[in-house]
Amino acid sequence: MVKTKIFTIGATGYIGGSVLGRLLAHPNAHSFEITTLVRSQDKANKLKRFGVTPVVGSFSDVSLVEELAAGADIVFDAVDANNLEAAKAILRGLSKRHQATGKPPTFIHTSGTGLLADNAAGLYPTDKIWDDADADDLETLPDSAPHRDVDLAIIGADKEGYVKAYLVAPSTIYGLANGRLVQAGIANNRSMQVPALIRAALDRQRAGMIGKGVNIWPNVHIDDVADLYIAIFNATLSNPHTGHGREGYYFGENGEHTLYDVGREIGHVLVELGKSSVAEPTTFTQEEVNKYFAGSTSLGSNSRCRGNRSRAIGWWPKKTAKDLFASVKPEVEELLKHG
């Protein structure tokens, strides 16, 4: 049997670990030959038990990344949406693969709906809703938008014809991952945005928000995000006309929230657990923004979208916005327990 050679980047991460777990459980897993890049020898040894070929190295080792990509039919990249040099290394490797096989390999890259963010700083909402099925509208995004330089390099490579590129853009991901690789002590089980707000709230003993917290973001559960990657993967195998390149954005979203509402839920949980006396969130001072978020007000931006292209390939997320709020208490308890 000729096996499909898959190279994954980010197996020890929140998204990448969840995606790799699904690949290992895929109905066609017996036909996959999976190689993954990992920084730790200890985690490499653990990955071997799953039948994965680990290579110890760093995402910043562009020569190694290029070499591994050159040996792959499919690359799943779930590490750093802003690392242009690493993305170019993957593309160079995939170009070599194309030259060797005559067939454009598949590149499933992780972007994010930060791509759509404005500078609201929590002071106002927006009516603008981006649609992943509207490629013409998405092309109006400025080149300076977050992740955009990497995305454009990948879309350009797709246009040249030596790769088929699919850009997954998750929104605010929430929920504690609990897949096989998390259970084995390999992958991270936490997201970034909500835990960052919780850590800040625990430290200041009161929930907080950027500005008035009236800005709006979409959200999506980690399990639904991982399912989206597999839906795209399956679509590429079953339908060669699956949208790619400039028509290859796939938004991960299934509900919306304001930053204020998330802060208020964190406040309620902190009061319930005796970690705060007031549930109502207050505005972070500039000093606190510097302390907790490295001076960035990005959590106060608007980023609204609809994943119509994602749903068109058969992705149907199971969790909704109410699950985001239900996830806050377990997230707080996890941070209190493990730091």
UniProtKB/TrEMBL annotation:
Kindly list the GO CC terms recorded for this protein: cytoplasm
**Record domain NmrA-like: where:** 3-88
Q: Which GO terms describe its molecular function?
A: aldehyde dehydrogenase (NAD+) activity
Checking Pfam families in the record gives:
NmrA (PF05368)
Output the PANTHER family linked to this UniProt entry. Answer: NAD(P)-BINDING DOMAIN-CONTAINING PROTEIN-RELATED, PROTEIN YEEZ
Q: What is this protein called?
A: NAD(P)-binding protein
Give the originating organism.
Answer: Macrolepiota fuliginosa MF-IS2
Upper lineage:
Eukaryota, Fungi, Dikarya, Basidiomycota, Agaricomycotina
